[in-house]
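User: Before I run my own analysis I want an independent prediction to cross-check against. Here's the chain; please return only the structure tokens and, at the end, one sentence I can use as a sanity check.
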Amino acid sequence: MISSLQTHPYPIVGVLLRPDFTSLPFYSLAASSNGPSNEVIVKYHRLALTLLSLYGLAAIATAEKPRVWIYTDLSDPRDQRTGGHPQNDPDDIVTMAALMLEANRFDIEGIVVSSTNRKNMSNPMPFVRDVLLEAYEYEAPFMNEVYGGYPASLPFMRSTITQVANPKRFDPIKDYSDLENYGTVAKFLEAAQEGPIYCLSWGPLTEPAIAVKHCLDTGKMDTLANIVFISHWTMSFYAQGSPETPYRVANCRDDEKACLFIHDRAREYSEIRYIEVGSVGQNGIVDGSAGFERLSEFNNSRLGQIYVNAKRYGDKPDMSDGSTFWLLTEAFGVELDHYRHDGTLDQATEEAARDKFKANGHRIVQDLLDRSNAAAKADAAWPESFIADLFTYVYQFINGRYFIHAPYDFSYRFVNGEGKIVKQATHQAGKYQLDLDDLPEGLYAVFVESAGLKQKFEIEKVAENDQKGNTRKVSVYDK
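Assistant: Structure tokens:
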């Protein structure tokens, strides 16, 4: 037990208290780059028990929340790459809605969107402002009536690395002492200098790696010691990755040098505390939510509408990135000390966390629904046509297969260049794979009707060995 305390970034709290207790006096005294002595641990272990017995729930009510900073590759779902898929996976949008519903659990210092190296991305801030923040700011007062602790707004900002047409990946050889061109890294480190903070990474590790390299280049080890990095799926032993190639996963491949750098440095430096959760968000939390029978109730609030409709994985909202903050709550089966804090992960640890989260999948969704129902008292859910316009996609995926994703039950028809309907069907809401084997190569108009909205797409079927067919949304032609 003593050794596990010594490796925890905030040793006593990891065992005795939830992360909400960062402000108690013994909390910071126990933290140091070299770890506390056994004598200090025992002394403050007893003090913690005494304080708990004296203050009980009063201490819980007044304790500070864990400070968090989020890096996400979230993009505007209407900003689509060649092939018709949104620039980045909309699972970050689902996860963001879930985080907003749970926002009173945390002190959110910054949310950096479009943190990726994908080229030619449009500015996602209008979508953030007009959809995400519009929903949150309108409904937060109603959640406060029930739960309390929701801030009036949230500090979103656009990543500085994607404000150029050709973003650069991390370079481990480069000296990052000067952060003039990395404003959202500089802001994060300013927050870290103020005190302990958790950095949650939902996508590539470019900006966290730059932050680490800057601190190493400038000797800011005290700042590094204030940070706990928690990353989603930059390695896995059974999902995308394997025991032989655990880093062969999307969030690592997107900036492999950044991924390997931060993992390696976390093993090398005790000041770098890094928790890799693996794929447990997808295979634990999301899979564990299967069969939840009250999903339709989320449509009664705006945040709930975003959560339940932005992306489905099978019949389940895909909030796989949420494993980072559900872990931080330590309330749904998995605690921080389940993982090592040196960037390493083994298959047994990943599978055990997956199973625990999976067993709590319905509890997690129920917690979200309770909050969504509080938000629903605003009685301001968006029209279904608004949601359908945002989150209906017709696309060719990188594996060459074609899909339709629609948030509500839908019908579609394919029309060839001669104006003839060559394929049509009706399907339930969610993601549906199209079988185009019987169609010749060429350009087709695809009409999708859902929630009273008619949308037109164009899809180009190409040869099997050519995975670069163009798909795009053409128009919304009837509301």
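Sanity check: The chain has 17 helices and 16 strands.
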